[in-house]
Amino acid sequence: MGPVRTCVGCRNRSSATELLRVVEEAGVLVPDPRRRLPGRGAWLHPDPECLRRAERRGAFPRALRVRGPLAADAVWRHLQLNPKCETVSHLDHESQVDPS
Question: Can you say whether residue 94 is alpha, beta or left, with left for phi > 0 and alpha for psi between -120 and 50 degrees?
Answer without folding.
Answer: left
